[in-house]
Specification:
The structure is a single chain. With 206 residues, the chain is α/β, with parallel strands linked by helices. Helix content is 24%, strand content 30%. It has four helices and eleven strands, in the order βαβββββαβββββαα. Strand 9 and strand 10 form a beta hairpin. Helix 2 runs antiparallel to helix 4. The two termini are 14 Å apart.
Length: 206
């Protein structure tokens, strides 16, 4: 079984993307189908995971899509890369924590190639960077597992509008902010997809 790489150049509506993932999960379950890594972006969208509470929504006027993924509320939109996947854990260790750790390592290794030091946090899922003595989130992770098939994925901020996060408490964490790669280090990120794909395949096949 191999991992199919799908890249969408135009923004994809959140509901359409999740519908595609759900169908892929069903077709992969018990079948000898290819797994999936799908790189895309969404139009301006706020999504709430299953752990979201209402006090994390600062601006009550925003439209929120409730999802079945893990985690809390977050924003998706232009300038942010989404990496969705559908991976069969039955073909690997049936260990969700280990899989989350692999996704964290993929992101950390990818940023490392851009000379950006990042780290995970056992108490707060996601990937973080420290700049000017402040810790900020650079990547969010939200995963659901159904019959040992892991899906949904992660998002990495490249050059998005950070003011979008002012309307929510991102991921329910009050004492830490959100940043993007361009704010951390201005450089060329055009090859980011290929670097991420390389690390994704390396860790998922090892």
């Amino acid at each position: 079984m191999s991992i199919k790489i799908k890249i969408s150049r135009k923004p994809v509506e959140y509901d359409k993307a999740i519908s595609y993932l759900e169908k892929k999960v069903q077709s992969l379950n018990g079948q000898n189908e290819n797994e999936l890594l799908w790189i895309l972006s969404h139009p301006n969208t706020y999504t709430a995971g299953i752990s979201t509470s209402s006090d994390e929504i600062i601006d009550k006027s925003i439209k929120i899509i409730n999802t079945n993924r893990g985690g809390k509320i977050t924003w998706h939109g232009p300038g942010q890369k989404i990496f969705y996947f559908v991976i069969n854990l039955s073909n690997r260790d049936k260990d969700v924590r280990k899989f989350v750790g692999l996704i964290e390592k993929i992101i950390i290794d990818t940023l490392k190639e851009y000379k950006i030091k990042s780290f995970s946090d056992k108490k707060n899922i996601g990937i973080w960077v420290k700049k000017n003595k402040k810790i900020k989130k650079i990547a969010a992770i939200g995963i659901r597992v159904r019959k040992w098939i892991a899906y949904h994925g992660c998002s990495i901020n490249i050059n998005n509008d950070l003011k979008k996060y002012d309307k929510i408490i991102p991921c329910g964490i009050k004492n830490r902010g959100v940043t993007n790669l361009n704010e951390i280090k201005k450089q060329n990120y055009k090859n980011f997809n290929n670097v991420f794909i390389k690390n994704f395949l390396k860790h998922l096949k090892s």
